[in-house]
Amino acid sequence: MKKYVFGEVMIGKEELRNRVIELGAQISKDYKGKSILAICVLKGAVLFMSDLIREINVETKIDFMAVTSYGASTKSTGVVRILKDLDSNIEGENVLIVEDIIDSGLTLKYLKDYLMARNPKSLKICTLLDKPGRREADVQPDYIGFTIENKYIVGYGLDYNQMYRNLPYISYLEEENE
Ligand code: IMP
Ligand code: MG
Questions:
Q1: Strand ranges of the sheet holding 143-147, from the earlier edge strand across to the other edge
Q2: Which of 75, 76, 153 has the most ligand 1 atoms within 8 A of CB, as the residue to mutate?
């Protein structure tokens, strides 16, 4: 079995905080006079979402969805299954999907099509991290926190085998040299 070790801090607490404030300001400006239904994609986007919505100053409702992504591996399977659907009806709402990271884009592509079929007034995507180098599906986020290289990220909501979500900064895992 491969062993992984932590890399350095990639995005520190302050940098995260400042960028979230900027994103919140941008979103507030773009949605001025409108309302938002922010949909958090569980579990990875929980920390980002809770910080982000506190920086948004237009009327905002929240809801949650859970989809399968990775199992106990660092490679995307491309299999998308809905584990928890929305509680609310999104018809006529300005939906903002809040994601932790877009990697292959397969999850988001599926989600986007799935939600579009329910006739929201508008649908935009806000992702904390974007790994464009690994894109397989044609999906473009409207708001991006940080564009990053191809590393396996952990922290600030992102996990490896459900661990490290509670780190207050973004780090990455590296294969250990034998
Ligand atoms: P995608 O379908 O390949 O774009 O990835 C979907 C999901 O996989 C993301 O929303 C994350 O939850 C998870 N994921 C992708 N890359 C990483 C990573 O580097 N670290 C932790 N989770 C990841
Ligand atoms: Mg996710």
A1: 82-84, 60-67, 36-42, 94-102, 122-130, 143-147
A2: 76
